[in-house]
């Protein structure tokens, strides 16, 4: 038993205790804490931690941040004033609390293990690492009850990247281990491994099963029923010869698993099924279809938006659902109230700075991973600082929303870049062109920016919505020539920002100019109706003369509609742009605009005085 502060780390039984009470902690966060404790006092780099816990497997570094946040909640630690885990920015972590070996704690702790105590731990001791997922947890518990009765269950947990699939499964497995003594094992599907190594996530899960306290029994079952699988994980029986990899039969493993779970409930988790190999998918299909009783709950997570139209996993899920052999839990983005709860938990502060929850919800679009990354970014940039008043410390906001929106958190930008890197060149160009508009973009603008056929771009945009979760169809609009053009939106504004920044200034300028020119063609004779938008594109392209001309057209259109305040705002904007012209040109343009602006302001004042006088008489 390793003791630090009020906590005890039982490495033999893989359990964390506070005083004499157990704390529910999922396997991966426990493994992270164990590694830190066992190497206390020194810097543990991100790379070292990833290599130690996920050997030969690529895992995005952001997952460490998620686990650290969970551990700090359990340990009641403060990242700003840590007692246990110290963060060394851009380097790694250090466990700073003194660690002692304590043999005499093991006996009383062991005696205190009981079902009621474990239920208390699951319900009250460990903070829930997720918010607004009660319905999903309840659904998983229902599936677990069926599995406990011998009715094998298969559940697909789906949702976009960062929506909280792993966090949900971790929380559920932690509760299941505490409340009904269910064991769990998981395998991670890895991008790029699907066509190279069969059964990669399956063998990873089997290694965990064989390394568990019940591992000897599992090894004996495998040696008797599925020896090729035992050899594949390097645990072959003494004196046996290793069979060829091709002799691993799904039916043998199914039979072995069914014997293993005869008196022990097992939760088998396969993550990121969108990267699974065909052999793993065939095994899942076999496990789902077999009729014998088995105390087995198989949970598979995946991002449906990463599925190609003909992806075999998509067909597997559809077939199993049609036969009522599986269930699906689709995770939706968090509502604003849930984001507020998440922020309150992270900051340990019930009353948040005004507008913070709305800002983070708007920027994250309700994605939990994005919300946490944005919060940490605000803290790192000192947009959120901790102020102490007497004995009370509170987080306060130091900058307006507009200033906080100026940058994308580095971690999120890298994650988005990784997803964009999987796209083909034409697909990336389409999205870049769409980012030049706003969060919403029409297909005709993409065609104009890329100088491509409108019908071709319409079809290409539609295909992207079937494959990418962050692009959605928003509706149609009728153009002046009678044709119709579909509008699309970025589900996450952060994706648009990253796509916009990927383009060089010269490329953006060319594409903005083409969109402005196409606007003029489409609305020939009605230029005033789109002059403001045209000016925006010319301004983004750095074509100041054309931008000024468009703003003047927009101002005249506003005057024709008696929109005096709008006309004044447009002329003020045009006046500011004259600073970008050559000195002589700028002076002439500024003089003309100042004269026009003064006339509009006089008319606006007269209109306001007349309205005031009229209302007074009434």
- Largest sheet, spatial ordering of strands: 4-3-2-1-8
Q: Can you count the beta strands? A: 18
Average the pLDDT over all residues and give the rounded result.
Answer: 84
Structural class: alpha+beta
Determine the strand fraction and express it as a percent band. Answer: 5-15%
Give the N-to-C terminal Cα separation.
85 Å
CATH H level, superfamily name of the largest domain: P-loop containing nucleotide triphosphate hydrolases
The description of the largest β-sheet is: 5 strands, antiparallel
Could you tell me the CATH topology label of the largest domain.
Rossmann fold
The stretches of 5 or more residues where confidence is low (pLDDT under 50) are: 104-127, 238-245
Count of alpha/pi helices: 27
The level 1 CATH classification of the largest domain is Alpha Beta
What would you call the shape?
Answer: globular
Q: How many structurally independent domains?
A: 4
How many whole angstroms does the radius of gyration measure? Answer: 30 Å
**Oligomer status:** single chain
User: Percent of residues in helical segments?
Assistant: 40-55%
Structural account:
With 618 residues, this protein is an alpha+beta fold. It folds into four domains: 1-129, Arc Repressor Mutant, subunit A; 130-332, P-loop containing nucleotide triphosphate hydrolases (Rossmann fold, 3-Layer(aba) Sandwich), CATH 3.40.50.300; 339-409, no CATH class; 411-605, Winged helix-like DNA-binding domain superfamily/Winged helix DNA-binding domain (Arc Repressor Mutant, subunit A, Orthogonal Bundle), CATH 1.10.10. Helices cover 54% and strands 14% of the residues. It is built from 27 helices and 18 strands. The chain has a five-stranded antiparallel sheet. The chain has a five-stranded parallel sheet with strand order 10-11-12-9-13. A hairpin with a 4-residue loop joins strand 2 (7-10) and strand 3. The chain is globular and about 90 Å long. It starts with a strand and ends with a helix. Mean pLDDT is 84; it is low at 104-127 and 238-245.
């Amino acid at each position: 038993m390793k003791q630090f502060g009020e906590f005890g780390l039982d490495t033999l039984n893989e359990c964390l205790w506070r005083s004499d009470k157990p704390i529910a902690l999922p396997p991966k966060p426990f493994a992270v804490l164990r590694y830190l404790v066992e190497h206390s006092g020194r810097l543990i780099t991100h790379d070292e931690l990833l290599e130690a816990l996920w050997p030969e497997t690529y895992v995005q570094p952001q997952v460490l941040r998620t686990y650290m946040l969970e551990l700090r909640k359990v340990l009641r630690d403060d990242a700003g004033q840590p007692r246990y885990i110290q963060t060394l920015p851009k380097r790694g972590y250090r466990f700073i609390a003194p660690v002692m070996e304590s043999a005499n704690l093991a006996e009383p702790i062991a005696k205190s293990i009981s079902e009621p105590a474990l239920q208390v731990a699951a319900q009250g001791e460990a903070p829930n690492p997720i918010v607004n997922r009660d319905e999903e947890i309840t659904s998983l518990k229902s599936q677990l009850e069926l599995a406990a009765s011998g009715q094998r269950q298969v559940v697909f947990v789906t949702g976009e990247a960062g929506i909280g699939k792993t966090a949900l499964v971790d929380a559920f497995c932690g509760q299941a281990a505490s409340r009904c003594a269910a064991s769990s094992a998981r395998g991670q599907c890895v991008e790029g491994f699907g066509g190279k190594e069969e059964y990669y996530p399956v063998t990873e899960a089997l290694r965990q099963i064989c390394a568990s306290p019940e591992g000897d029994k599992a090894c004996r079952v495998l040696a008797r029923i599925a020896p090729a699988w035992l050899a594949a994980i390097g645990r072959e029986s003494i004196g046996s010869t290793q069979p060829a990899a091709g002799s691993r039969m799904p039916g043998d493993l199914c039979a072995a698993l069914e014997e293993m779970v005869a008196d022990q409930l097992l939760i088998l988790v396969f993550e990121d099924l969108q990267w699974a190999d065909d052999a793993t998918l065939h095994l899942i299909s076999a496990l789902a279809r077999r009729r014998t009783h088995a105390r087995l709950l198989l949970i598979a997570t995946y991002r449906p938006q990463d599925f190609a139209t003909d992806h075999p996993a998509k067909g597997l899920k559809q077939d199993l659902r049609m036969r009522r052999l599986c269930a699906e839990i689709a995770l939706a983005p968090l509502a604003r109230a849930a984001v507020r709860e998440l922020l309150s938990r992270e900051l340990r502060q019930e009353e948040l700075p005004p507008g913070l929850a709305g800002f983070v919800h708007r920027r994250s679009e309700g994605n939990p991973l994005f919300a946490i990354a944005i919060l940490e970014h605000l803290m790192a940039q000192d947009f959120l600082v901790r102020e102490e008043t007497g004995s009370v410390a509170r987080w306060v906001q130091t900058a307006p929303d507009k200033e906080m929106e100026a940058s994308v958190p580095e971690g999120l930008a890298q994650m988005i870049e990784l997803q964009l890197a999987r796209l083909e060149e034409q697909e990336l160009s389409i999205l870049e062109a769409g980012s030049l508009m706003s969060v919403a973009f029409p297909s005709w603008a993409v065609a104009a920016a890329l100088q491509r056929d409108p019908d071709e771009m319409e079809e290409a945009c539609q295909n992207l919505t079937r494959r990418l979760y962050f692009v959605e169809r928003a509706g149609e609009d009728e153009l002046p020539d009678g044709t119709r053009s579909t509008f699309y939106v970025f589900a996450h504004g952060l994706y648009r920002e990253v796509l916009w920044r990927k383009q060089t200034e010269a490329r953006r300028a060319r594409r903005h100019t083409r969109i402005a020119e196409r606007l003029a063609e489409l609305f020939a004779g009605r230029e005033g109706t789109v002059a403001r938008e045209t000016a925006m594109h010319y301004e983004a392209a750095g074509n100041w003369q054309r931008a000024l001309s468009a703003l003047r057209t927009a101002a005249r259109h506003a005057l024709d509609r008696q929109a005096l305040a709008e006309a004044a705002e447009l002329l003020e904007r045009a006046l500011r742009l004259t600073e970008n012209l050559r000195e002589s040109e700028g002076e002439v343009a500024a003089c003309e605009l100042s004269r026009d602006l003064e006339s509009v302001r006089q008319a606006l004042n007269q209109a306001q005085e007349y309205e005031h006088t009229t209302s007074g008489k009434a």
